[in-house]
């Protein structure tokens, strides 16, 4: 096209611009130029460099009660840049919510806790499940129950959580593929603590960098069995216990952003399919079990910095994952904690069938 002289960059796309329109924008009139340079000078001389910042604080304790309970003061502004304070290493302690503190909390904060709830966490021996179990202990759980296939890690995790929190914590060595073992274990939980109020299903595995054309069908079936069938078997057993007790409940299935996007650059069709299945299973359960006051929601994490990904073969790919994440990092092991407690708590009681992606912005691009 003759009238197109060049391209100009708009966002990430290159858009063809006609010559006339380019000239209109590139060459302002004399009057326009004068106005522009005057306003530029004015802004230059008006650069604000306050030496103090006036502050008004309104609280019930303020001294100036007569004038609307306000305190007025100024904060001095230091010139020059200051090195940021080093961030203190957080000490890993677990402080369970005490009843007397709970009773003093305003209703909104009480609803955001899981006070008095019995919570089962699968895959709670390590990683994301372990951290969500800790968060539930802090947020008021009556008892925490860990289901995991790893005997040593599970035992260790339960002992540590009990020792740090003082709460009743049990560990059941259960493989989420084993329906009979799950049913027996859930019945035991009911006998010990009463029917569960919450299930957090975090047990799962990942196979990465396997091309679909060479995927071993036995491996494919195994992964689907753990990630998808395991979610079903756990939900069924816990859902039945909730229904039998006539208790409302919350089921939280840990899916993945891989359930709605295809990861790059690793090929992992089976994992992605399994998590898409978990999300759609969760939505189906949510619709079926709303009449029993059982809510079902999914948490879909992006790339998280857990043992699941601490594989030398993934080191180079991790750099790519990080670079494609707007927050420029992998999620920390405790980055799901707040969302988990929220979904387990009564503050999310109108929420069911949702799939919440929590990924540092990865799926924005
Ligand atoms: N780490 C990530 O980047 C990431 C991202 C998205 C989703 N997820 C999902 O989050 C969940 C937790 O992942 P993680 O990173 O904490 O992994 P992890 O490997 O650190 O922990 C998983 C836990 O599940 C247990 N487990 C595995 N198979 C089991 C089985 N058959 N029965 C019972 N327990 C079993 C393991 O023993 C382990 O304790 C998984 O479902 C995973 O798919 C993880």
Automatic annotation (TrEMBL):
It holds the Pfam family adh_short_C2. It comes from the Eukaryota. GO terms for molecular function: mannitol 2-dehydrogenase (NADP+) activity. InterPro entries: NAD(P)-bd_dom_sf, Sc_DH/Rdtase_CS, SDR_fam. Residues 62-85 are annotated as: Disordered. GO terms for biological process: mannitol metabolic process. Signal peptide: none annotated. Transmembrane segments: none annotated. Keywords: NADP, Oxidoreductase. Belongs to the short-chain dehydrogenases/reductases (SDR) family. This is D-arabinitol 2-dehydrogenase [ribulose-forming]. The lineage of its organism: Eukaryota, Fungi, Dikarya, Ascomycota, Pezizomycotina.
């Amino acid at each position: 096209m003759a009238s197109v002289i060049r391209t100009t960059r708009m966002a990430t796309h290159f858009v063809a611009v006609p010559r006339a329109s380019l000239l209109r924008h590139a060459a302002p009139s004399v009057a326009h130029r004068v106005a522009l340079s005057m306003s530029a000078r004015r802004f230059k001389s008006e650069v604000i460099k306050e030496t103090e910042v006036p502050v008004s604080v309104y609280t019930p304790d303020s001294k100036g009660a007569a004038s609307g309970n306000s305190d007025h003061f100024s904060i001095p502004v230091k010139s020059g840049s200051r090195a940021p304070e080093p961030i203190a290493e957080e000490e890993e302690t677990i402080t369970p919510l005490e009843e007397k503190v709970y009773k003093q909390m305003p209703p909104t904060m009480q609803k955001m806790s899981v006070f008095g709830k019995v919570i089962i966490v699968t895959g709670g021996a390590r990683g994301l499940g372990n951290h969500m179990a800790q968060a539930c202990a802090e947020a008021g759980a009556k008892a925490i129950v860990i289901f995991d296939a790893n005997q040593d890690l599970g035992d260790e995790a339960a002992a540590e959580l009990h020792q740090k929190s003082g709460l009743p914590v049990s560990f059941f060595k259960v493989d989420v593929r084993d329906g009979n073992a799950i049913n027996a274990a859930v019945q035991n939980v009911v006998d010990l603590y009463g029917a569960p109020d919450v299930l957090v299903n975090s047990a799962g595995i990942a196979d990465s960098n396997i091309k679909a054309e060479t995927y071993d069908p036995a491996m494919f079936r195994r992964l689907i069995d753990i990630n998808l069938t395991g979610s079903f078997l756990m939900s069924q057993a816990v859902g039945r216990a909730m229904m039998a007790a006539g208790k409302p409940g919350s089921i939280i299935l840990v899916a993945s952003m891989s359930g709605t996007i295809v990861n790059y650059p690793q090929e992992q069709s089976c994992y992605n399919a399994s998590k898409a299945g978990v999300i759609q299973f969760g939505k189906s359960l949510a619709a079926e079990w709303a009449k029993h006051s059982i809510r079902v929601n999914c948490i879909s994490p992006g790339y998280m910095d857990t043992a699941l990904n601490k594989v030398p073969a993934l080191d180079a790919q991790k750099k790519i994952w990080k670079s494609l994440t707007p927050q420029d990092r992998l999620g920390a092991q405790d980055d799901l904690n707040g969302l988990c407690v929220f979904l387990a708590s009564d503050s999310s009681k109108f929420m069911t069938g949702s799939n919440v992606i929590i990924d540092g912005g990865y799926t924005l691009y």
